[in-house]
Design a protein that fits this description.
Elements lengths: L2 H15 L4 H12 L2 H24 L1 H10 L1 H20 L4 H10 L3 H10 L2 H15 L11 H30 L5 H25 L1
Helix pairs in contact: 1-9, 2-3, 2-9, 2-10, 3-7, 3-8, 3-9, 4-8, 5-10
């Protein structure tokens, strides 16, 4: 019966990772500009971040919900940053010098994956809601649950995130083989995605 916790963790993490977010975009970007191996490094540590966020949400879900409800400025700031970065990527012109500098700044893909995964308030809120739904369906999950149940659940969370990001990477390879001037195209696509994510978050906040 405890295997159910593994499946719940896996399925819930996949749902969390499917919407385009910072980690997804980084994986797509890295696959297109470098290779799938480098992108997988991002996925490895992004999965770890997902586990940490889900654990934190399980530990203090009520406090997290209240904090974000009372501090809309934080979510607004995140939305503005996403829109600003997206606009910059959309209008900037690519040069080899810029690319070389950028590669140096983002050399550690493990660090990139962890930071992008952990600094993600919407995902934290998602896990708060997810735990509420899980515990309302005759499957009680808390820090008082058995060690085996919790271990299987968080293993499922990790691999759910990893598998989803790996899927995005494989999909990007297909795109890479069919699109010319890939760097400019990626910048524009990434910019549009970030702008869309920022506007969606802003709409959710104020409507």
């Amino acid at each position: 019966m405890v295997i159910v916790y593994l499946l719940i963790g896996l399925f819930t993490a996949i749902l969390s990772a499917l919407p385009l977010g910072a980690s997804n975009i980084a994986v797509i970007n890295t696959t297109l500009k470098q290779n799938a191996k480098q992108a997988f490094k991002i996925a490895v540590t992004a999965g770890l971040s997902e586990v940490i966020l889900s654990y934190y949400a399980l530990h203090c879900n009520t406090a997290i919900t209240t904090f974000f409800e009372e501090n809309l400025w934080l979510q607004t700031t995140i939305a503005v940053l996403l829109i600003s970065i997206g606009t910059y990527l959309l209008i900037k012109k690519h040069t080899e010098k810029q690319e070389s500098k950028k590669m140096k700044l983002t050399k550690s893909k493990y660090t990139t994956g962890f930071v992008l995964g952990i600094v993600n308030p919407p995902v934290l809120i998602y896990w708060v809601v997810a735990f509420g739904i899980i515990n309302n369906n005759n499957i009680m999950l808390s820090l008082k649950s058995s060690f085996l149940a919790l271990s299987l659940f968080f293993i499922g969370v990790y691999f759910g995130k990893l598998i989803t990001l790996y899927g995005y990477s494989k999909m990007s390879i297909v795109i890479k083989n069919k699109v010319k001037n890939i760097t400019t195209t990626v910048n524009k696509i990434t910019g549009i995605l970030l702008i869309c994510i920022g506007f969606i978050q802003a709409i959710q906040l104020y409507l």
